[in-house]
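Input:
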Amino acid sequence: EAQVTQNPRYLITVTGKKLTVTCSQNMNHEYMSWYRQDPGLGLRQIYYSMNVEVTDKGDVPEGYKVSRKEKRNFPLILESPSPNQTSLYFCASSPYQAGQPQHFGDGTRLSIL
Amino acid sequence: DQQVKQNSPSLSVQEGRISILNCDYTNSMFDYFLWYKKYPAEGPTFLISISSIKDKNEDGRFTVFLNKSAKHLSLHIVPSQPGDSAVYFCAASESSGGGNKLTFGTGTQLKVEL
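Output:
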């Protein structure tokens, strides 16, 4: 089954404690992306990757890092989480070309206290 | 600056009637437009798309209309069913930038009532 898998689904943690949210896809997609969803703001892109070892900032990259060492994995790293990063996070993947539907994971709800 | 706007946060429709969800955009470089549906505790799922060379695309009960001169698109659901109750996001993409970046609207909560 084609899918994007995120872990964990829920996490409550404290300010400053480094955390990683994993994302894995089994569709051999080149393009992967992280979004955060906040009330009244829709989904905003944090970082994206066009292929292995190629990553770039999206619209709201501050406080986040990513890596793409393998095609299937695209982890999101919060080195020093702060309360304003409390949000619902989605990972997505698609073929490289514009206009291709992106497949989304089921989301990770992060609460930073 | 919100390049994709969904001005109606919510919409309530009776079962069997038509649901019309609207979306406006400001970036004339957008050339692909997509609609996603999202249920609680799940990720968005792709519904239907349209490229800028078309003005209409239909898939079963779902039809998307694009008016490029007005920079406006709409999603029609006919007939509406209770299972259509969800948040609907409009998204846009431009091929000239490389890759597949999607810019999303803020979403419209559709409620289909019995």
